[in-house]
Design brief:
10% strand; ATP binding; protein dimerization activity; alpha+beta; Heat Shock Protein 90; 2 domains; 396 residues
Length: 396
């Protein structure tokens, strides 16, 4: 079978750097051509317009990068972002006015257009309807600065803006897809960690049942047989040398019953340290989040069903944060108060959306209610989304 050679795939970060570098080179070429045809008495004003265009472009690049980093590589379309509108209009307006101030001839328009379309890729901040309308308006205003071949210049400007806008849109889509795949990977690893923990609990339960059913049955049979032998030895009036070992064997079987009962009871309970280790393993799988765990030493989780339920709740919360939140920091806090165990899950990012109960939250509420607990979703004083779980000590 012939080997398949995959096409060269350039990482999106490197691709963005290449596009920015090419944009700077293209802008520099256009600036050189514009200044070369600019009348000497207008060069000071032309230089000021160029500086304004550069400043606005850098501000747009900074705002876009800041948006990605603050939102955990989640790009949001926001038609009401007035800062983006301000710098975008400033960048294009200064470049368009520069064409008239520098008196750029029509034959130099194909080069000068590079100064105008340089910010076209940043219009992805807005929805396609606004982006395309804005690009068309820019192309019209740019073409009006030249007395000849206005339709040709308009088409050229519009085409170049569409190409750069498509490039910017493809990068944003890929960044969002990479983030989505990372979230899905974290969800899969958290599910695997919880399945592994459930398998360990199932194994403990099976061992407990096997010990209780099989070994308990054998010990009961042995104890009964020894008791029968002891009674027969008494009726036959056998010597103490024969009866004494039978009595010791029956006492030993009775002690083995007690030891077996202790072992089965111990397997029925989950060590509290085991639950915390399972919680840590689950949290470690959420690589896209920074999770802080503040655990009260008085909180002991030993019931297997409670352990599995709380792990499911934590996984549901982390999944919701990764999918719907703009933040990366999460806090898990537990405390013991008045015979109750309180577990608080908090998304430390400021929540700006509308909250509504879905199937996931309804399922969490039902599982907590089955353990005689209370589940509450609320907003903290800092407008942070918080899940509060309260369980009676007897349930855990």
């Amino acid at each position: 079978m012939d080997s398949v050679t995959l096409p060269l795939r350039i990482p999106y970060i490197l691709r963005a750097g290449i596009i920015i570098t090419l944009g700077i080179i293209a802008w520099a070429i256009a600036a050189y051509i514009v200044l070369s045809v600019c009348p000497p008495e207008q060069r000071m004003l032309a230089t000021s317009l160029m500086a304004t265009s550069v400043f606005c472009f850098c501000a747009l690049a900074f705002l876009g990068t800041r948006e990605l980093l603050m939102n955990n590589l989640a790009w949001r379309v926001d038609n009401r972002d007035w800062r983006f509108w301000l710098y975008l209009v400033g960048s294009h307006l200064s470049s368009i006015l520069l064409m008239g101030v520098a008196e750029v001839p029509s034959e130099s328009a194909p080069y000068a257009v590079l100064m105008v379309v340089n910010s076209a890729s940043l219009v992805v901040r807005f929805s396609p309807k606004y982006s395309l309308s804005f690009n068309m308006l820019v192309a019209v205003l740019f073409a009006m600065q030249f007395p000849q071949d206005q339709w040709l210049i308009f088409c050229l400007c519009m085409l170049m803006q569409l190409v750069l806008w498509s490039f910017g849109l493809s990068i944003v889509v890929e960044i969002s897809e990479v983030r989505r795949l990372r979230v899905m990977g974290d969800e899969l690893r958290m599910a695997q960690a919880q399945i592994a923990e459930s398998e360990r609990m199932l194994e403990r339960r099976n061992i407990r049942h096997n010990l209780h059913d099989n070994m308990g049955h054998e010990l009961a049979t042995l104890h009964m047989n020894l008791q029968i032998l002891e009674q027969q030895a008494g009726r036959l009036e056998l010597s103490d040398d024969i009866v004494a070992p039978l009595e010791r064997s029956r006492d030993a079987s009775r002690k083995m019953f007690a030891v077996l009962d202790d072992i089965v009871s111990g397997l029925r309970q989950v060590p509290s340290a085991h639950f915390y280790d399972a919680l840590t393993d689950l949290v470690d799988q959420a690589t896209t989040l920074q999770v802080t765990t503040l655990w009260d030493e008085k909180v002991k989780i030993s019931d297997p069903q409670c352990c599995e339920t709380l792990l499911s709740v934590v996984r549901e919360f982390l999944t919701n944060v990764m999918k719907h939140s703009e933040g990366r920091e999460v806090e898990i806090r537990s405390c013991y108060s008045n015979g109750n165990i309180e577990l608080t899950l908090r998304d430390l990012a400021e929540y700006t959306g509308e909250f509504s109960y879905g199937n996931g939250l309804s399922g969490v509420e039902e599982r907590i209610a089955a353990m005689d607990g209370r589940f509450l979703v609320a907003m903290s004083d800092d407008n942070e989304l918080t899940w509060n779980i309260t369980l009676p000590e007897a349930s855990v």
